[in-house]
């Protein structure tokens, strides 16, 4: 924007879009703030009254809150670990010249395009079903008792499903990073006598530090709000074993019809997300500085 | 020791024949430059010697031992890459010492050797910096440091100066040459710049289309080019070539005269007559591009300033002893 005129023109042209986005964001937030201070139950219409911070006290002291907070953190942490630990070797494999590489790449990326609800249903009914699922059939081949995934290890089952969905994302980002690794650097390491393993540890892994950071930051944002997979498979149970913060808020609002408490929970979730983001940026964000 | 011998080395990528049988003897301690136009296979030949590419045929002997099946690290050579290929996340110290670390040397021994190499290259103040904090010339020196620290049998340079600006290139050219003489290590150096080749080499290999056109000392190539290609490639400005009746009188298909071997006479009667199309006055030299009618454009060089200008008529007198004669297939005719 070189001159004053073009600056003014640009601003006035941008104003409608920015204004619309702002309203789009501020109205729901303001309403959530407003509802969080009300006694507002759909089962008891007409009884709305201002209760101050009572909804927050209620949400935070709910025993389900700490359980779901723990579940959220376990879910995020496990999925991050799985996608990165499996994504690196997968990306390394896909970086090798193999026949039909483009088709293999497309298939690896495919899970990312499947809707969370659909993939959760497929996992629940076709793979993890204790009677008719593929895993049960494999177990029966070895005369083992099939695992009833959603009853015996419900959180782990959800982690598996979510990790399967996010593995392609991690693989893709890491693969593009691998492809940008300077060929001459690998050759220099080869001339320096580095074995394949040392070349990976000393050359490739440091090169991947930045994309790994990107994967962690982006995945965390989405994994904090995992909902469809839990809703479709376990419905948060058994008990509270697979209830995360997002699902807890949902159950407040649409199972217990307590809009006030759900709004308070939503705001708590915003704070948690910011706290997590703050620590993440402190810990891994250093890698992003050039 | 670092004596490298190539015996009928060939390389093809699929149906494309890149190196069509190269024979070469690089004596221990000598500085050999591969020079040629782009795509002539000079870098491929260097990578074959390094072991970064597998040969399609022939033998590569290092100190008499055939190394075609030896991995690069075991050949005892080190290479300086065109892009320097420094490890960006390691300090200068880490970069120079990486090869020694991979060889499993003790930490204090690595440190001692790295510091010695850094001192040779005036890199000591920068040992703890990252490559991105260095200038182009310093990066270049780190890449050379990485090569010398391993005390290799030979250095391989792949157009190492092509990313530097002109002034720095001249300075590094001198530094590399002096360092090589001081260490007495064999060096093979690839470049497309014939000035680099002429100034640095003990011996030059001129490559064209995957074949070695001539192998000899710089002055040998300048004074006795084996064929038209070498004659045209070595020397700047290019040699003038004249074909037809004039060449036939000399018993050749083509005759060549270097611009500096044409005597320039104002309004002269004899020699090759023409009109100056462009005159370049550099102070130290004067280059004249002369339109000589049926002979085509001729270039003449005069040492010093000559006040001739575009449009002036001149006659160019070739020094008889400095006329190169070539037969129909382009090979030099001697005697």
From TrEMBL, chain A:
<dbReference type="Pfam" id="PF00528">
    <property type="entry name" value="BPD_transp_1"/>
</dbReference>
<feature type="transmembrane region" description="Helical">
    <location>
        <begin position="155"/>
        <end position="178"/>
    </location>
</feature>
<dbReference type="GO" id="GO:0005886">
    <property type="term" value="C:plasma membrane"/>
</dbReference>
<feature type="transmembrane region" description="Helical">
    <location>
        <begin position="12"/>
        <end position="35"/>
    </location>
</feature>
<feature type="transmembrane region" description="Helical">
    <location>
        <begin position="73"/>
        <end position="94"/>
    </location>
</feature>
<dbReference type="InterPro" id="IPR000515">
    <property type="entry name" value="MetI-like"/>
</dbReference>
<dbReference type="InterPro" id="IPR035906">
    <property type="entry name" value="MetI-like_sf"/>
</dbReference>
<feature type="transmembrane region" description="Helical">
    <location>
        <begin position="212"/>
        <end position="232"/>
    </location>
</feature>
<keyword id="KW-1003">Cell membrane</keyword>
<feature type="transmembrane region" description="Helical">
    <location>
        <begin position="106"/>
        <end position="123"/>
    </location>
</feature>
<feature type="domain" description="ABC transmembrane type-1">
    <location>
        <begin position="69"/>
        <end position="280"/>
    </location>
</feature>
<protein>
    <submittedName>
        <fullName>Sugar ABC transporter permease</fullName>
    </submittedName>
</protein>
<keyword id="KW-0813">Transport</keyword>
<keyword id="KW-0472">Membrane</keyword>
<dbReference type="GO" id="GO:0055085">
    <property type="term" value="P:transmembrane transport"/>
</dbReference>
<keyword id="KW-0812">Transmembrane</keyword>
<feature type="transmembrane region" description="Helical">
    <location>
        <begin position="264"/>
        <end position="284"/>
    </location>
</feature>
<keyword id="KW-1133">Transmembrane helix</keyword>
<comment type="similarity">
    <text>Belongs to the binding-protein-dependent transport system permease family.</text>
</comment>
TrEMBL record, chain B:
<dbReference type="InterPro" id="IPR003593">
    <property type="entry name" value="AAA+_ATPase"/>
</dbReference>
<dbReference type="InterPro" id="IPR017871">
    <property type="entry name" value="ABC_transporter-like_CS"/>
</dbReference>
<dbReference type="InterPro" id="IPR008995">
    <property type="entry name" value="Mo/tungstate-bd_C_term_dom"/>
</dbReference>
<dbReference type="InterPro" id="IPR027417">
    <property type="entry name" value="P-loop_NTPase"/>
</dbReference>
<dbReference type="GO" id="GO:0005524">
    <property type="term" value="F:ATP binding"/>
</dbReference>
<protein>
    <submittedName>
        <fullName>ABC transporter ATP-binding protein</fullName>
    </submittedName>
</protein>
<dbReference type="InterPro" id="IPR047641">
    <property type="entry name" value="ABC_transpr_MalK/UgpC-like"/>
</dbReference>
<dbReference type="InterPro" id="IPR015855">
    <property type="entry name" value="ABC_transpr_MalK-like"/>
</dbReference>
<keyword id="KW-0067">ATP-binding</keyword>
<dbReference type="GO" id="GO:0015423">
    <property type="term" value="F:ABC-type maltose transporter activity"/>
</dbReference>
<dbReference type="GO" id="GO:0016887">
    <property type="term" value="F:ATP hydrolysis activity"/>
</dbReference>
<dbReference type="Pfam" id="PF00005">
    <property type="entry name" value="ABC_tran"/>
</dbReference>
<comment type="function">
    <text>Involved in beta-(1--&gt;2)glucan export. Transmembrane domains (TMD) form a pore in the inner membrane and the ATP-binding domain (NBD) is responsible for energy generation.</text>
</comment>
<keyword id="KW-0547">Nucleotide-binding</keyword>
<dbReference type="InterPro" id="IPR003439">
    <property type="entry name" value="ABC_transporter-like_ATP-bd"/>
</dbReference>
<comment type="similarity">
    <text>Belongs to the ABC transporter superfamily.</text>
</comment>
<keyword id="KW-0813">Transport</keyword>
<dbReference type="Pfam" id="PF08402">
    <property type="entry name" value="TOBE_2"/>
</dbReference>
<dbReference type="GO" id="GO:1990060">
    <property type="term" value="C:maltose transport complex"/>
</dbReference>
<feature type="domain" description="ABC transporter">
    <location>
        <begin position="4"/>
        <end position="234"/>
    </location>
</feature>
<dbReference type="GO" id="GO:0055052">
    <property type="term" value="C:ATP-binding cassette (ABC) transporter complex, substrate-binding subunit-containing"/>
</dbReference>
<dbReference type="InterPro" id="IPR013611">
    <property type="entry name" value="Transp-assoc_OB_typ2"/>
</dbReference>
